[in-house]
């Protein structure tokens, strides 16, 4: 449907980083309830991998303030520059999550409003990346769409690609990679309409 928009995600976020940061800065932390559910499954100060961390605010910032060490990954150098400026004690990496191979394990993995910018096949491949970076009993949280399909939003006045698999396929991919679903809410009205998956490695 939108192969050009899908292929241009990395470039778009780099060019429009300031637009995204400004827009995100105007919103409150509507994700707090889900972040609290996520961290309730983590050991104290368990390291967290944030895939598509953006500028770190407000989600990674909330976790950092609570004492969790965060390794943030984003494909936009402009985003990572902001992370390093505001949170210099954490580790921030410019990388494409699809090719990530850190050779390290994390007790928490978050891919919030980032994973769903990947095309269907890339999303399927990401589950092995999640598994490779997951410590025993690691917790994974990501957002998706409510059903299989593609959609085009907007960032800084330009087309912004989104995609989702069918919920049954997400469940199958999680199961195949050793994760059990802890909670799944479709278009949560208390979290800005996000569709959220919370899972744990078993």
TrEMBL record:
Domain Methyltransferase per the UniProt entry, residue ranges: 48-136
Keyword field: Methyltransferase, Transferase
Coiled-coil intervals, chain numbering: none
SUPFAM superfamilies (UniProt xref): S-adenosyl-L-methionine-dependent methyltransferases (SSF53335)
Cross-referenced InterPro entries: Methyltransf_25, SAM-dependent_MTases_sf
GO-annotated biological processes: methylation
Domain of life, per lineage: Bacteria
MF terms in GO: methyltransferase activity
Name of the protein: SAM-dependent methyltransferase
């Amino acid at each position: 449907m939108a192969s050009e928009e899908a292929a241009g995600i990395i470039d778009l976020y780099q060019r429009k980083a300031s637009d995204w940061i400004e827009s995100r800065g105007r919103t409150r932390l509507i994700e707090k309830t889900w972040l609290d559910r996520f961290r309730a499954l983590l050991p104290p100060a368990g390291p967290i991998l944030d895939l598509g961390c953006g500028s770190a605010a407000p989600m990674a910032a909330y976790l950092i303030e609570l004492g969790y060490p965060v390794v943030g990954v984003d494909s936009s150098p402009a985003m990572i520059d902001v992370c390093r400026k505001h949170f210099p004690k954490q580790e921030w990496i410019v990388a494409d999550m699809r090719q990530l191979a850190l050779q390290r394990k994390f007790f928490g993995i978050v891919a919030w409003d980032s994973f769903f910018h990947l095309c269907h096949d890339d999303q399927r491949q990401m589950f092995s990346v999640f598994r490779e970076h997951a410590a025993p009993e690691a917790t994974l949280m990501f957002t998706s769409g409510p059903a299989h399909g593609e959609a085009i939003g907007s960032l800084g006045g330009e087309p912004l690609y989104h995609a989702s698999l069918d919920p049954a396929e997400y469940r199958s991919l999680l199961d195949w990679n050793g994760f059990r679903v802890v909670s799944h809410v479709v278009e949560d009205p208390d979290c800005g309409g996000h569709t959220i998956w919370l899972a744990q490695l078993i």
